[in-house]
Design brief:
heterodimer; A: mainly beta; 7-stranded mixed beta sheet; 4-stranded antiparallel beta sheet; globular; B: mainly beta; 0% helix
Chain lengths: 112, 113
């Protein structure tokens, strides 16, 4: 158990819909990362937050957004979903950027 | 960010020592080298991190030559449970508030009985 909690574990939704993925970081970790992993793309870095502020951005689509709340949990919002958005979405946390990151078990999103 | 190159796949046998080498020719002065392990449908797990020379922990050793243009992850006496994908990362922003932890393609390690 990494100490990072992601909910839900599985999500099935239709194209065009919007979903929210939730991540609770390890206690004391200020940095949260989001990743997308699909079969043909590998682990894609989406975005990083530190203590509530966006600090680094990767290949995150405009249809996707994220935020980190004062209690340090984070949410990844995916809208106008397409079949190609089907993937495993991982959240990770670390004390600060660049330090050892702990990953959650992921949310498996299936868009039908 | 420094680009990393590592073998796509490797095979070995139980009880052997496995060395996975990663090239990072454009590593910056303040970059650290980090290795992660990932099993299917699970999140990556941190293995080891280093800056120079040699780092050892309970699961692996990391060898970094003086020029830091490459690094080698050494797994002693592997078992079937070490079958996984291993990622070499070279990261900026070590111990700062901003960091992109960028994963490459990784090395798919298969251990046979």
């Amino acid at each position: 158990d990494s100490g990072v909690t992601q909910t839900p574990k599985h999500l099935i939704t239709a194209t065009g819909q919007r979903v929210t993925l939730r991540c609770s970081p390890r206690s004391g970790d200020l940095s949260v990362y989001w990743y997308q992993q699909s079969l043909d793309q590998g682990l894609q870095f989406l975005i990083q937050y530190y203590n509530g502020e966006e600090r680094a951005k990767g290949n995150i689509l405009e249809r996707f957004s994220a935020q980190q709340f004062p209690d340090l949990h984070s949410e990844l919002n995916l809208s106008s979903l397409e079949l190609g958005d089907s993937a495993l979405y991982f959240c990770a946390s670390s004390v600060v950027g660049g330090a050892e990151a702990f990953f959650g078990q992921g949310t498996r999103l299936t868009v039908v | 960010l420094a680009k990393t190159t590592q073998p796509i796949s490797m095979d070995s046998y139980e009880g052997q020592e496995v060395n996975i080498t990663c090239s990072h020719n454009n590593i910056a002065t303040n970059d650290y080298i980090t290795w992660y392990q990932q099993f299917p449908s699970q999140g990556p797990r941190f293995i080891i991190q280093g800056y120079k020379t040699k780092v050892t922990n309970e699961v692996a050793s990391l060898f970094i030559p003086a020029d830091r243009k490459s690094s080698t992850l050494s797994l002693p006496r592997v078992s079937l449970s070490d079958t996984a994908v291993y990622y070499c990362l070279v990261g900026d922003g070590h111990y700062s508030s901003a960091s992109k932890i960028i994963f490459g393609s990784g090395t798919r390690l298969s251990i046979r009985p």
